[in-house]
Amino acid sequence: MAPKPSRLASILRPWGLIWLSICLHWEALTQAVRRDGLSALGRPQQIRDVASARLLSIASDGFIAYEDTTIVPSLVQAAGGIVLELGPGPGNQIHRYDTSTVKYVYGIEPNPYFKDGINSRLDKHDLRDKYKVIVCGVEDSDILRAEGITEGSLDAVLCIQVLCAVKDPKSVMKEVWKLLKPGGKFIFWEHGCSRDRLTNVAQACWNPAWSTFVGCDLTRNVLVDILSSGEWENAHEIEEPEEPFSLLPRIQGVLVKKKC
Q1: Which of 140, 104, 135, 136 is nearest to 122 (CA)?
Q2: pTM of the shown model
């Protein structure tokens, strides 16, 4: 097993991804201006989406390799029946689904620039007939309803490092709870604020640049957002691995929606 990084190494680690993202944002901006002129400056979200898709696609292999050393593969395997995957991004989890237990997966992804990459992975892993990408957020109930995703219709929701990046995690979690069947599973592996005081200070210092360019928040209390969404049968089973030096400390679990 590789030695864990020191506190200093952990504190300095975000800079590499921030700098790469800055370069990709600049590249996306200059390309948009060359193509569309100064009118491109009036579409900052499009530039941000392009840069974010490139960043996470470049980092995809590294994320997958790291997740292979964690509980993530077994969490994905726990998703069965009708599944909604929140924010699949470049599709890092697609190869991990147990196709013998999954009936269908809806990938809810608001960034349209991930769609082609996800579809290429679906073809590679022969999942085209069991997975559909829907370009929207989980709050877009009209779009979801048109796909047959309504309150109490889902067997499982998979959420791997997504709540850090949404605008309103409390609202997202309330929607998730409503969409799950009684007895349905919320399967998650998320990062949030550290319980270690010095690490928490470092998170606060990095967060303005990290949230602006990488696109997620280092300081959220994700546990509170999850638990306040509704009633769960096994809230006491949420795990918080001991990671005092990590700026991305995880919480993880398979919560079961309480039956009436």
Answers
A1: 104
A2: 0.94
